[in-house]
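Continuing the batch. This is chain 6 of the set; chains 1 through 5 are on the previous pages. Same settings as before, nothing changed between runs. Recording input and output for traceability.
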Amino acid sequence: MSERERVKSAIEGPVEEATKILDQSAGADVETRLSILINGWGRGIAAGLEELAIAVSDLRRGREALEPEPAAREPHADAAAADQPEGDARAADEPRRAAEDMDELRHEAAQSREATKALRDEASRDQ
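Output for chain 6:
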């Protein structure tokens, strides 16, 4: 599972759980329902951040393990790695994947805003 998928699934779990609880608590007041929604998103974001921290830690450990001593480093090794077509293909694919991920996050944020607006509207009607 890629880091992006791990982060996405870490966020989705608590948010889906909060949504289930919201569905079960249709009779609860608006403040309680909004609290459940915010709690789910907060736990999801915290879990996603934890996954990111783990990935960054793994990257740092990997870099330290692979990094040669400064005196033993060959100046041509970086140039040879840059000439490989696989690296170019992956680098060219990154912006597209990043844009798709951003579009997906924007869509999820829009859904969350709509749910929050609906709860606020319901609260204003109840008052």
